[in-house]
Amino acid sequence: MTKIALSGGSGSIGRVLRPALLARGFGLRSAGGSRPLEPISPEEEVCHGDLRDPAVVDRLLAGTDVLVHMAGTSNEKPLPELIENNLRALYEVYEGARRHGVRRIVFASSNHATGMHPVEEKLELDCDYRPDGFYGLSKVWGEAMTRMYWDKHGIEGISLRIGSAEERPTQFRHLSTWLGHEDMIELIVRCVTAPDIGYLAVWGVSANTRSYWDNSGAERLGYHPRQNAEDYAAEILSKTNPLDAVGRRYQGGSLAPMNYTPQD
Ligand code: 15L
Predict the structure, then answer these.
(1) ipTM
(2) How many A from CA of 43 to the centre of ligand 1?
(3) Structural domain harbouring 104
(4) CATH number of the domain that 134 lies in?
(5) Is 74 close to ligand 1, i.e. is its CB under 6 Å away?
(6) Would 262 be classed as within a structural domain?
(7) What is the mean pLDDT of residues 173-200?
(8) Is a pLDDT exceeding 90 seen at residue 263?
(9) Does the beta carbon of 209 lie inside 6 Å of ligand 1?
(10) Which of 112, 120, 139, 150 matches a 20 to 30 Å C-alpha distance to 201?
């Protein structure tokens, strides 16, 4: 039985993953942040604490096979906070993975690593990084770090460029970026179980008709999404698009206009 260490267990993605991973028979140790997590069943082990502390990392990773790293700051924030949570903590967690012989890391990257690509472009997996802010930039670091730990230390790595992980798509941009919960669970399970991955970056996205991203590389994982935001198009198109002109121009949506310098 594969034992998974899941960081970010109290976050919006972690809360969906925990029952789903347990239901599929994985061993699971989930970590919360500053507050203790309540185990959702007797099978779930829990821990909590600041991942910049190696002792906390040891409690999370000892005896586990695969780390699903969902913790960290998940939106645009001042750079010092991003450096602590998304760079420094990541370093401590990845060093912990080395210490404990974790064989694979699934890293929650984000579409914001490429968010300054215009919405008209269809991106392949090897497209240029074009972060739409310091949050996206921190994910570029995370992807490069995931790659480095495979190249230098033989820890397999998958960078998941997650789109909009929501139960339902609710706004125009989600017609391109939505990752439905069923697909998200399927994708994570494939990331844990697919053999011989080495290093891989994939988009975390459903089978959206209007997707910004060509996810053919994800076939290596055996990931075949079944949800499509287009099923909600009529409802979404009847509502006002909340994005301003800059947000509508770039794939990163509302993060693109933040601290943006207008150009002619
Ligand atoms: C993300 O990476 C964020 O964590 C989330 O809050 C959303 O902004 C999402 O991307 C998105 O692009 O919709």
Answers:
(1) 0.99
(2) 30
(3) 3-255
(4) 3.40.50.720
(5) yes
(6) no
(7) 98
(8) no
(9) no
(10) 120
